[in-house]
Design a protein that fits this description.
- The chain is mainly alpha-helical.
- It folds into two domains: 79 residues, no CATH class; 43 residues, no CATH class.
- It contains four helices and no strands.
- It is elongated.
């Protein structure tokens, strides 16, 4: 079953999934570029708010911290995009409850209740034969 509610053939499904790795690679490249572009303002923000955090203008420490900030931003962007993809496009199981299923479940519960009542009746009869009083304990 396709996302539009219509049945899809295996060939149509294959066409829609064949480009997914390419789309994923393009998405990762775009997220990396965004993370690298936002690196300096984010690093300066961190330097203003975190003690002993190197600024982007400092020599080697600042450059390494910038790559670290860009990496963290990239991972966060990637996590958000995976969550959005899973929420919107991931395959969802087909859960359809039919009238027949509901009737079968109702019949099963009624049958179970009757069996329980029979068992209680049988236990009472056995207890009465033995001369013991049987009371249900709740």
């Amino acid at each position: 079953m396709g996302t539009d509610g219509k049945d899809t053939t295996p060939q149509e499904k294959k066409k829609s999934t064949i480009l997914m790795p390419v789309v994923g690679l393009m998405l990762m490249i775009a997220l990396g570029l965004i993370a690298f572009g936002v690196r300096e303002p984010a690093q300066d923000f961190m330097a203003d708010n975190v003690e002993n955090f190197p600024r982007s203008t400092q020599a080697e420490d600042g450059e390494m911290a910038g790559y670290l900030v860009a990496g963290v931003i990239f991972v966060l962007e990637l996590m958000v995009s995976v969550i959005v993809y899973a929420a919107l496009f991931a395959a969802k199981p087909d859960r359809r409850v039919t009238e027949k299923d509901l009737k079968d479940e109702k019949r099963f519960k009624e049958k179970e209740l009757l069996e329980r009542k029979k068992l209680k009746r049988h236990m009472r009869e056995e207890a009465a034969k033995e001369g013991k009083g049987f009371r249900e304990q709740d």
